[in-house]
Amino acid sequence: MSSIFKASRAGIAARRSALFPCKAPSNLLEYALNMGECKMSDAMPVTQVELFPQPQRNNTISDELGNLLDLLRSEFSNAHAVHFEFDGKLKLHVDVRNSEEIAATEAKLAMLCAGIFINIHHGATPHHPFFHRVTAEVIR
Known about the structure:
The structure is a single chain. By secondary structure, the protein is α+β, with helices and mostly antiparallel strands. It folds into 2 domains: 3-42, no CATH class; 61-138. 37% of the residues lie in helices and 24% in strands. The protein has a 4-stranded antiparallel sheet, with helices on one face. Strand 1 and strand 2 form a beta hairpin. The termini are far apart.
């Protein structure tokens, strides 16, 4: 071997000993364990893995809204449309055909579902000039 090769090899060995104060690791796992000052013999084998407990949900939001919508559609069966809208606040829209139904719809909404409907008001239905829309915010 040439003297240049021996000198470079000695320099690499000196740098390696500075990086790895113990013997050179044979694999990455052994190196990771040595960094934490653990030995392979200290590691405990995993024999059983337990699953995280699944949270029990009574009802999802979509289930609750679906049940509420079914109740409202049965209560306002003569309405043209009953649907929800969410734009920062959950709103219920009930579209009726006759102006006489507006007051009855507003009165029913005020008493339904333990008072979860607030700010009940009426106006025109977009793109349907012959319908009237009763709107209420849903709180819960």
